[in-house]
């Protein structure tokens, strides 16, 4: 398969969509990003790498970080996490409070903000220095020690975190948050502000593609069964209230973030990350969604 030609063709074709989406502006520092950027990076399990466009430009990974924090918690406490977080699509926007009240403070899944906050809360209980531990984990996954937090984005998000604070306090009132809410929001805002490129992310998701085994270090990060479950959650819940549509269009597990990145993979085969900051009305990268649909269609491969 000539992946380089495939991704270059997609890169050329989709630039025409610039201007149709809107950069996230509810976090002021994110609104400053140049919207007209588009990168694609592909890594195969047999060690081939391909890239197009702005694949090496770092951006704020935002909710893509929820996959990393869930992996960190799962490897320590396993199924225990499912007593506190559900595994069903929410059908609601990523930061919705409504369902939480009805469902007694147990978030629908770990990829909406409420669920990710519970996961980060458990992570704080497990690691004495959670912010250092998150960076170390992500660096190990992509085999790059130059991964850092974007302090400006973290500060900006922290200063505008009223809704996430509300989610955390509501869940605390139901006994589902164990740590101090300020500490929790600080760690959460930092994990969302990790700065990575498409190249870094496509490498970082190879362990999921490889049944939980990090191909760079040889470490079994998750069991095969845990990796399968994480992938299933990405497929069913990775795109908020557009998760069904992404599965329908691209047919692969993926996770988006409001920074405009989407990490996706085909198990046993390849990992692909696309990034373009303009979002559609559900908060997912408009060009990114399109790019992944084109990719699996053009190569004639998906999980189905
Ligand atoms: N940091 C964002 C928030 O909590 C994450 C949302 C996203 O990327 O979808 O609002």
Tell me the layout of helices and strands:
Elements: H1 3-14, E1 22-23, H2 28-31, E2 39-44, E3 49-53, E4 59-60, H3 65-77, H4 98-102, H5 113-126, H6 130-142, E5 148-149, H7 151-159, H8 162-173, H9 181-192, E6 194-196, H10 198-204, H11 206-209, H12 224-237, H13 243-250, E7 254-256, E8 261-266, E9 270-275, E10 278-279, H14 286-299
Antiparallel strand pairs: 1-10, 2-3, 2-9, 4-6, 5-6, 7-8, 8-9
Helix pairs in contact: 1-14, 3-5, 3-12, 5-8, 5-9, 6-10, 7-9, 8-9, 12-13
The structure holds glutamic acid.
Structure in words:
The protein is an alpha+beta fold and 304 residues long. The protein has a single domain, classed as 3-Layer(aba) Sandwich (Beta-lactamase). The protein is built from 14 helices and 10 strands. It has a 5-stranded antiparallel sheet with strand order 3-2-9-8-7, sandwiched between helices. Strands 4-6-5 form a 3-stranded antiparallel sheet. Strands 1-10 form a two-stranded antiparallel sheet. Helix 3 runs antiparallel to helix 12, helix 5 packs across helix 9 and helix 6 packs across helix 10. It is globular, with a radius of gyration of 18 Å. The chain starts with a helix and ends in a 5-residue tail after the last helix. The structure holds glutamic acid. The site of glutamic acid (GLU) has 11 residues, from loops.
